[in-house]
């Protein structure tokens, strides 16, 4: 392990481009600056996104369904653009410069939003969307006014989308995963990152939303800009302490080479002995730029044809578009294998979209008084789970993880796959609680005119917050720890894509439900701006059913999935190829290509598929 750790240190650079020094660079000290950035960035973006539907309805005069779709499309775009940020970081810019460049773009978007909200010339005339006049109906923002709003909004989306995956990846890069002690600290870092996220969300959904409600959205957007500026200051302050992984060129080229080479050799037969495949295990010297050698696996064997070396290729150096190594092919197999796990979290994020749109409107139709003189902004309801998580995440990391680690031997206490599954299971109960509470609220309002307290809908937020602690952190840890060197930022971006698809699916689902449930005499479940006329409770029940079916689907794919072997080349001597038990890994010659891994710090070993 020490040799592998030294090699990883050589592959990381300090701010001057020199090899990093483990005594000066990296570790939790360096990661803390990234945690500060994450708290401030989410503080700014959450204050905008979580109260955006109120602004779009009251100030831009969009209908309820169009406003909900505007919000979900905005949030969805943020997370789909995370792929761009991950690609640019891993391929060309590196995490630090990607964060810095797009962080300033996000800051400029916040400033433009504040200007647009402040100037009456950039907004339609004021009116009450809930009680529009017959003679003077509310005018929806169009033309130049809508253009300014959308440009500002999507500048924020572009900046935030490219910043988000790199904050997590750059923080995780500060830990040397080949060091057992730092591997445990990496698990703690993921929990700390979610704690910083929760802290930023809590502040945004209480203080900043209160500012937006009582001082105006222009002031609120301005405070979001100030928070983003503080985040960039935190980023720059840690410059001297970072371990920086150098970009490796286009991350898509090696992937494309595997598919092209496999297709070109589609008519060849695979050898019965996989040891003769090009680059199989120890047949070639360690290629540091490729992250070391990976063990061959039997899944997606068609791709193994890219490693077949023909007689013509045996005497000459072959083009990488015609001949690939086993390691290169196994990395592509890993990418394909994680797709079903990723897909199973889309419905989970569709539920999150409802808590940021319809549940906020649900709270607007309830009694928001905490006392006779103090009211709770409906958007602040979303702070409830984060208040809970600020208490739970440290307890989870300091008490549960060490206890579970003794039982399972897993450095994270429980595996990321199990953590994701627990979250998906709990998400179903969030929608069940939402449906029951909406039915109670609607019946009270329609039958007796009674307005329930806003606290009746807190259970759906509490349950989902607990669910998100398991699923969101588990998914990021799962993707980051895959054996794909040089693609950590892009893999982290894939986790954010789940949010994107979830929010886009929410928009499609809302429109589909409206079309299916509409009749000749009236609109669909979510057609009106009045929740007392809509059937939001039935929509929540539909989501509860979808969530449970999605959980069953996840059980199948999580059982199907098996981790790819970890890199082994740095642990196997190239001279004598003997097993090195002292380094924590040993290779066993067996027909199933199993890896034997030491559990914890003792001499107990178990096989890893």
Automatic annotation (TrEMBL):
Membrane topology note: Multi-pass membrane protein
Pfam families: PTR2
GO MF terms, alphabetically ordered: transmembrane transporter activity
GO biological process: oligopeptide transport
Family: Belongs to the major facilitator superfamily. Proton-dependent oligopeptide transporter (POT/PTR) (TC 2.A.17) family.
This protein's UniProt keywords: Membrane, Transmembrane, Transmembrane helix
Upper lineage: Eukaryota, Viridiplantae, Streptophyta, Embryophyta, Tracheophyta
Compositionally biased intervals (Acidic residues): 1-12
Name used for this protein in its record: Protein NRT1/ PTR FAMILY 4.3-like
Chain spans, region Disordered: 1-25
Transmembrane segment boundaries: 33-58, 70-88, 95-115, 146-168, 189-211, 223-242, 335-355, 375-396, 417-437, 457-480, 489-513, 538-557
Compositional bias per record (Basic and acidic residues), positions renumbered to this chain: 13-24
Domain of life the protein comes from: Eukaryota
Subcellular location per the Swiss-Prot or TrEMBL entry: Membrane
InterPro entries assigned: MFS_trans_sf, POT_fam, PTR2_symporter_CS
GO CC terms in record: membrane
